[in-house]
Amino acid sequence: MTIIPFLSGFALPHALIGTVALLTFWTAAFAKKGSALHRTIGRVYLLAMIGVLLTAIPLALSQALKGQWVGATFLAYLVILVGHACRTAWTAIKCKNDFARFTGTGYRVSAVVLGAAGLAVTIIGFVHGAVLLIIFGLIGPLGAWSARSLLRTGPQSPRWWLKEHYGAMIANGVATHIAFLQVGLMRLVPELGSGMIQHLAWFGPLALSFVAGWWLDRRYLRPRSKVSEKVPGLETQPS
Predict the structure, then answer these.
(1) How far apart are CA 132 and CA 198, in angstroms?
(2) Considering the entire predicted model, what is its pTM?
(3) DSSP label at residue 194
(4) Structurally, how many domains does the chain consist of?
(5) Which of 35, 85, 232, 233 could anchor a disulfide with 98, C-beta 3.0 to 4.6 Å?
């Protein structure tokens, strides 16, 4: 089919934009939080991630047309996963003074789609005996459950928005590094394509994300005993 080479041609811009995302991720990570540099580079990173998502869609379609349905499904799921994280990272800052607005219809729909997509990928993983699909697929339902818990209990800290923001950015960072290690580095150095190295490339960033989340929680979140402080927007939070 003549359309397949056209769709596959998005691989190069996908890789180039992904390189920008990788560089700006670490620039923002090391910049002083809340500084002009951090905010500016953070915006560039999110824009780059949007470019990564847009170029990933034709690549997923290309795999589907080739009959590679498992790979196409997983790539489409990653688009949904990263799209949800990008939206959360952006709106957490934009709506930090309005919790009800942050958790509006868009947030709820995005969480439901994420959960359903993750569940589908998990089922496919069990059918094909693919541990990778099972583990990453479960991230979707867990993310949806976390969103449901946030809606039910409300924010547990005046800095709820910060937790949502850096949690989403960590998720984006995992995707960025997996893409670099699995696609970019493996093509540059094919000798690294052994089973052990590939598993480290997939699960290493995921494991480090839990460590990063734990460290950031300890550094930036207030103790739960202070949740009685007024939280902007909480008064409009539905029960």
Answers:
(1) 11
(2) 0.80
(3) S
(4) 1
(5) 233
